[in-house]
């Protein structure tokens, strides 16, 4: 009989810590625990934190510029220049063929919108700007929603607001030695109170030393399921909330194969932060 390989191992030659004992007990009970290489060292956390400062500054620069009449290519130019000025690299540029430095997703575009000169923002549009930077080898990932011109329909305004609430509620549900599923369950409950669809085909993810690692952070689901959340883990929460159906499709007109559209072409919104799990809960690294 082949024994199941354990995911968690104590450091060689060291007595198990209190954290080790908690994790090993959860694994013994059949829970999915992280591997040790998902736990960031203090030095790595500081590196990710520095990247978070740059990422936040880049989104601040976008916020200052977004207005009716500018193109999404203008936003990409701002992000590219900000990276150049701050010794950073855009993680999306060239990633699996993605052609730009940032994702700009307008109205019914759920995510991965590609900046274009011909995409001109008009008053009332809602747009998600999703930026990931690399600074000294460390990654930080965040996105924000913007209402172009400062006002839109009540329906879109509510969608943007509730999606931000989903991010905050999901983060509050994440506790040390809790579960990824606790995050998704809290987000789904809040979104569905408004009749919204929670996108199921895309998710948050581990980040920090790479662009995407474990855990997969689903934004729907059930409490007590998924990977155990351990202090030292760094990951994104990035709920994509649709005004209508949760279903999505790949835009057939996108030659790069990236842009995702809502299934009923109603508006979508997304907010995202990179978080560090601590002994006291989550800390945002992309303020």
From TrEMBL:
The protein's Enzyme Commission number: 3.4.11.18
Catalytic reaction annotation: Release of N-terminal amino acids, preferentially methionine, from peptides and arylamides
Signal peptide: none
Gene3D superfamilies per UniProt: Creatinase/methionine aminopeptidase superfamily
Cofactor: binding details: Binds 2 divalent metal cations per subunit. Has a high-affinity and a low affinity metal-binding site. The true nature of the physiological cofactor is under debate. The enzyme is active with cobalt, zinc, manganese or divalent iron ions. Most likely, methionine aminopeptidases function as mononuclear Fe(2+)-metalloproteases under physiological conditions, and the catalytically relevant metal-binding site has been assigned to the histidine-containing high-affinity site.
GO molecular function terms listed in the Swiss-Prot or TrEMBL record: initiator methionyl aminopeptidase activity; metal ion binding; metalloaminopeptidase activity
Binding-site residues for substrate, renumbered to this chain: 112, 212
Residue numbers binding a divalent metal cation 1: 130, 141, 272
Binding site for a divalent metal cation 2: 141, 205, 238, 272
Class of this enzyme: hydrolase
InterPro entries reported for this sequence: Creatinase/aminopeptidase-like, Pept_M24, Pept_M24_MAP, Pept_M24A_MAP1
Origin: domain of life: Bacteria
Biological process annotations from GO: proteolysis
Any Pfam family: Peptidase_M24
Peptidase M24 domain mapped to chain residues: 46-279
Cofactor(s) needed by this chain: Co(2+); Zn(2+); Mn(2+); Fe(2+)
Keywords: Aminopeptidase, Hydrolase, Metal-binding, Protease
Family affiliation: Belongs to the peptidase M24A family. Methionine aminopeptidase type 1 subfamily.
Assembly description: Monomer.
Protein's job: Removes the N-terminal methionine from nascent proteins. The N-terminal methionine is often cleaved when the second residue in the primary sequence is small and uncharged (Met-Ala-, Cys, Gly, Pro, Ser, Thr, or Val). Requires deformylation of the N(alpha)-formylated initiator methionine before it can be hydrolyzed.
Protein name per its UniProtKB record: Methionine aminopeptidase
Source organism of this protein record: Prevotella amnii DNF00058
Phylogenetic classification of the source organism: Bacteria, Pseudomonadati, Bacteroidota, Bacteroidia, Bacteroidales
Originating gene: map
